[in-house]
Amino acid sequence: MRLIDYVNQGGAITWLLVLMNITGLTLILWRFWVLRDFGKALDDRAEGIAQELKKTAGGNALSIAKDFITAKVSELEYGMTVIRVIATVAPLMGLLGTVVGIFEAFQIIAAKGLDNPGDFASGISLALITTIAGLIVGIPHSIAHNFLSGKLDVLEIQLEKRVLPRLAGN
Length: 170
Fold this sequence. Notes:
The chain has 170 residues and is mainly alpha-helical. The chain is built from five helices and no strands.
């Protein structure tokens, strides 16, 4: 069976999971690229932040530097909430599909009995496909969110280590 056949068999919930996966993976790849580029130019960015702080805050630059750096790094967090929501919601959507599939299977048993196991199996198949799809979407998004969050924390610490000495030298 082809992948598209599995997705079709999983129904609307699986198609929603496919859409969530495409959206999330796009954001993940974009965040990896943005954070990589930010990290490559960390010294230049630190110098720019130090100059901006000296210009705008004057003698108070050192006291507001950490908050300023935190604000700059938080700009890099764009899209992270969506990744976290997908990581959280995808397994729940899979569980919803599981419940719907089992419900359909029991409705078929109630209506037709167990004379034709193929009818019963379609509901169970829906349950299993949506469960698998929810986990396939949720697990990588959870891993990526944790990795990217850690990378943001490291970038913030590295930025502080480069900016604060430039300000203290005044």
